[in-house]
Design a protein that fits this description.
- This protein is of the alpha/beta class.
- The protein has a single domain, classed as Alpha-Beta Barrel (TIM Barrel), CATH 3.20.20.80.
- The protein is built from 17 helices and 12 strands.
- An 8-stranded parallel sheet has the order 9-6-3-2-1-12-11-10. It has a 4-stranded antiparallel sheet with strand order 5-4-7-8, with no helix packed on it.
- Helix 4 crosses helix 5.
- The longest helix is centred in the middle third of the chain and has 27 residues.
Length: 489
């Protein structure tokens, strides 16, 4: 990873405060960048920025790996559309009422999009990108048909330039809506990222390894995925049972036909990674170990009935590295430990991850080491978006874990005011190239601020910061930690 020793914060833009019921790319996002600058924190880590489904609203479940979540658009900063009026809204300011917020913003943006001229030069330039054309065509047809792509007319089941022209004319209003909103998402995000970069802040993005069956990715590249002769899945992705999820996890996303991907020199993956790296400075690949081995589960069965399969790592990284700067990637390599993974991370200098919450022993027999003995080529986390907050962790940990934590912090060079900040300090004092915590943990929040509980389908992703001023209480400690550990260069 081509970055100096530094630190970062996980803070998805949806969690920013502000009007319209959900965080956006507006002034509070820039205020957060200013906070990073003030505390000498160099990295802003976000979750996937793509459209979410409208069932679980998960950033990791999207109809497109290329397009953006239009609900992040700042309605006060629309290009050439400052003269519209919005209906009054009274949404909660400490969590996201996804269903009603999505409906509200979609209606507002739809009404504005009706008046756009798609022949304007900036829209046509935006559509010069073939992936954008493909994915906007899919979103348009998906809304028109109101059903997954397998049920569409035969003429709509695969992408062509002729289909793009047909859809843009036949379903003009829906097409305009998707074009307008994706253009605005891209324009506003690029403006925000440019502000961050000019301020010395890098953005670490995120991409799931798998995609939904009902997605533009599978629809336009169905030969690259493991589907039967009717286009359906026989096996789905998931996670093997472990100490955190005894029954494993069923993700229900589509497995790749890695043989066909290899025959096509992984062109789909190269294009997808390029598209995502155009949006961020660094990119974390979620479930990185899936390139080495993956858990395949028969459809509609328990994760317990899954089985291991070998991934494409022997050829994948060799081919992809010809086109993609591997120094921009981060591996979410948690869970299964494989020597092959270590080999690739070392060869391409890709940092893996350590999460302190998972590395504090819960039993006297263990093979863990003190964080100050971790390797350098790592991103070290207190916890992730999937973890309890640190305060929640303390409330739920057993006596042995608390005992080990207290032993660990005896070696701290720089102790702070309480358990939560000492927990953060352990990660900051590790040799890891980058140390990361969450905004919730800076604020010492409890379980009510947990962002996601893996294996659950409701109540996730909705936490929001009520006011930007809440961050002021953490400035002194965070700035000191960065200074004392030389993470402020």
């Amino acid at each position: 990873m081509d970055i100096k020793k530094s630190s970062g914060l996980i803070f998805h833009p949806t969690s920013l405060p502000g009007k319209h019921g959900i965080g956006n790319f507006g002034k509070n996002a820039k205020t957060f960048v200013d906070f990073l600058v003030e505390t000498n924190t160099k990295i802003w880590q976000v979750l996937p920025l793509g459209p979410t489904d409208e069932l679980e609203y998960s950033p990791y479940s999207s109809p497109s790996s290329v397009l953006g979540n239009i609900n992040l658009i700042d309605l006060d900063n629309l290009h050439n559309h400052s003269d519209f009026t919005l209906e009054e809204n009274k949404f909660p300011d400490e969590f996201i009422d996804f269903k009603n917020v999505y409906k509200y913003k979609s209606n507002a943006l739809y009404n504005i999009s009706k008046s756009i001229d798609i022949n304007e030069n900036y829209y046509q330039q935006f559509l010069n990108n073939k992936l954008i054309r493909e994915h906007i065509t899919f979103l348009t047809l998906n809304k028109i048909n109101q059903n997954p792509w397998l049920s569409w007319n035969e003429s709509e089941k695969s992408y062509s330039e002729h289909l793009f022209e047909y859809v843009s004319n036949k379903y003009e209003e829906e097409f305009k809506y998707n074009l307008f909103t994706q253009y605005e998402f891209t324009r506003q995000w690029n403006e925000l990222k440019q502000y961050a970069n000019k301020s010395g802040i890098k953005v670490l993005g995120d991409i799931p390894i798998y995609v939904n069956h009902n997605s533009a990715d599978v629809w336009s590249n169905n030969n690259l995925f493991e589907l039967d002769n009717t286009g359906n899945m026989s096996y789905v992705s998931g996670a093997v049972p472990d100490e955190f999820t005894a029954d494993g996890q069923v993700w229900n996303t589509t497995l790749y036909d890695w043989d066909i991907n290899r025959e096509e020199n992984y062109e789909y993956w190269i294009n997808k990674l390029k598209s995502n790296l155009d949006k961020v400075d660094y990119l974390r690949i979620d479930h990185f170990v899936g390139f080495f081995q993956y858990w395949a589960i028969p459809i509609k069965e328990s994760a317990l009935n899954g089985s291991w399969r070998k991934g494409p790592w022997k050829t994948f990284f060799k081919e992809v590295s010809k086109e993609i700067p591997m120094s921009k990637l981060v591996a979410e390599d948690l869970g299964v430990v494989l020597s092959e993974t270590e080999e690739i991370l070392s060869k391409y200098n890709i940092p893996g991850m350590k999460v302190l919450q998972q590395r504090i022993p819960s039993d006297i027999i263990h093979d863990e080491i003190h964080p100050n003995e971790w390797k350098e080529n790592l991103i070290a986390y207190t916890g992730t978006h999937d973890s309890p907050t640190i305060k929640q962790w303390f409330g739920e940990s057993n006596e042995m874990q608390i005992q080990y934590f207290n032993e660990y912090r005896k070696e701290l060079n720089f102790k702070l005011s309480n358990d939560v900040w000492d927990f953060i300090s352990l990660v900051w004092e590790s040799p890891a190239q980058v140390s990361v915590t969450t905004v919730q943990d800076l604020l010492e929040l409890d379980k009510e601020a947990r962002f996601n509980s893996p294996g659950t389908k409701t109540g996730n992703w909705g936490w929001r910061l009520k006011e930007m001023d809440q961050l002021n209480s953490s400035i002194k400690n965070l700035k000191l930690l960065n200074e004392m550990n030389s993470r402020n260069i």
